[in-house]
Design a protein that fits this description.
By secondary structure, the protein is α+β, with helices and mostly antiparallel strands. It has a domain at 25-106: Class I aminoacyl-tRNA synthetases (RS) (hypothetical protein PF0899 fold, 2-Layer Sandwich). It has 3 helices and 6 strands. The strands form 2 sheets. Strands 2-1-3 form a 3-stranded mixed β-sheet. The protein has a 3-stranded antiparallel β-sheet with strand order 5-4-6, with no helix packed on it.
Length: 131
């Protein structure tokens, strides 16, 4: 038995979160990121339903976003966040609508990270196999 206490975790009352931990700016950032991710997921799912790709890791994304969204996505590993093999973001010159283009990745599948890559994976201990 892992837990020596007989009490079930489902009967445990969670501790109160201190009010000082509240960060409205950070919360809004992740809300905005989540909205972008949902739009990307819809675009990927359209390609999956038409059988152009199997999984999201078979997708390369081109995201055309406004300045605010461009800054919001800065510093985030977009391939990991969107669970795709490749992401390129472009800042549009106007405050226009976000445009998402999904293409099938070209290359070979890495044996560890499963991304489709045109060259050897840069991660330590990864390798390429034929797709």
């Amino acid at each position: 038995m892992i837990n020596k206490n007989e009490k079930s975790i489902h009967e445990t009352i969670f501790p109160e979160i201190p009010q000082s931990w509240k960060n409205d700016t950070l919360s809004q950032k992740w809300t905005d990121l989540y909205e972008i991710k949902q739009k990307v997921n819809i675009a990927i799912e359209e390609k999956r339903s038409s059988k152009e790709i199997g999984s999201s890791l078979e997708a390369d994304l081109l995201i055309n976003v406004n300045e605010k969204e461009f800054q919001l996505l800065e510093g985030i590993d977009l391939e990991e966040y969107f669970i795709t093999s490749k992401v390129k973001k472009i800042q549009n010159q106007s405050e226009g609508k976000m445009m998402i283009e999904v293409k099938k990745s070209k290359g070979s599948k890495c044996t560890l990270c499963w991304k489709i890559l045109e060259k050897k994976c840069e991660r330590k201990h990864c390798g390429i196999i034929k797709a």
